[in-house]
Amino acid sequence: MLTENKKMRICIVGAGTRFLGGISYYTIHLVNALARHNNVSVILMRKLLPTRLYPGWKRVGASLTSLEFDPAVRVFDGVDWYWLPSMLRALLFLLRERPDVVVFQWWSGTVLHSYLLLALVARLLGARIVIEFHEVQDPGEAKLPLAQVYVRLVVPFLVRLARGFVIHSEYDRKLLQSHYDLEQRPAAHIPHGPYNHYQSGEREQERRIAPESCCNLLFFGLIRPYKGLEDLIMAFDSLPENEIDRYWVTIVGETCEGCTMPASLI
Q1: Residues near 186 by Cβ (< 8 Å), separated by ≥ 6?
Q2: Which of 66, 187, 230, 245 could bridge across to 165 with cysteines, CB 3.0–4.6 Å?
Q3: Residue 12: pLDDT band by 50, 70, 90 thresholds?
Q4: Is the pLDDT of residue 111 over 80?
Q5: Contact indicator for 112, 80 with CB cutoff of 8 Å
Q6: pLDDT at 210 over 90
Q7: Are 91 and 43 in contact (CB under 8 A)?
Q8: Are 215 and 247 in contact (CB under 8 A)?
Q9: Which of 148, 73, 79 is nearest to 109 (CA)?
Q10: Rounded distance between C-alpha atoms, residue 34 and residue 186, angstroms
């Protein structure tokens, strides 16, 4: 067992809960897991972009989760896309923490300019940089030509600062290598974290229960155009009468980006 003064100092840079999504949950779980055996701090991205431009903007800032960081974790919440004065405070926080390792949760070009500055300062402070890729770029964002070009041109500068990478599938490894030069730096392949905070302890709270004889197909997450939920619904609806009773579809999510067709089909 390491003594207190020999624990690694780790800073996680990831998504806050103002623009709540899967990366927000993942960041909290990751931070709390690492805090069991290390000295951990976290810098959160707070306002990713002007609120009206965010998919599902009407729920921005609402209190939608009961998840909390471990009390031992030092939290800076957070950095706004326009930087002043939040970035200055984040840099002072980083200077006080002096982490050995800084782990960046990557998923969207909206945080790229902030990540690049934080990574540069962290390197100057002697920290090792690790980038955990959840995707090359947010799929909705990637449909915007200017956003796509911006990310492809600027992310290589961030990648060059990293000592290693974390990915969640071999598909991601190949995709990243096709976009950026990872050289011979290590890329650890790890399973994605749990979403066990959605487990219900009381059966009566569940809205409906799939029969045990059925294969229950779960669609979980934001309902966005690129995910093809309407294809799943139409395919399910086309099953013949002699097979349909063997299957059950559960959809847990929220529509955004004007993706109303799945709700109409349901």
Answers
A1: 164, 165
A2: 187
A3: very high
A4: yes
A5: no
A6: no
A7: no
A8: yes
A9: 148
A10: 20
Q: Which tokens belong to 245?
A: 């009773």
Residue whose structure tokens are 């949760």: 105
R_g of the chain, CA atoms, integer Å: 21
Phi, psi of 130 (to 5 degrees): -125, 135
Tokens of 95: 């200077």
Helical pair 112-124 and 86-97, crossing angle rounded to 10 deg: 30
Could you tell me what percent of the chain has a pLDDT over 90?
A: 62
Asked whether the beta carbons of 131 and 162 are under 8 A apart, the reply is: yes
Q: Which of 141-145, 156-160, 163-167 has the lowest mean pLDDT?
A: 141-145
Interatomic CA distance for residues 159 and 182, integer angstroms: 7
- Across residues 230-251, what is the average pLDDT? 92
Task: Take residue 264 and report the two structure tokens written for it.
Answer: 């109409």
Average pLDDT over residues 18-27: 90
Query: Whats the size of the chain, residue-wise?
Result: 266
State residue 1's pLDDT score. 45
Residues β-bridged to residue 164? 130
Neighbours of 95 (CB within 10 A): 12
Residue with the two structure tokens 């390792």: 101
- CA distances (Å), 42 to each of 30, 63, 259, in order? 10, 20, 33
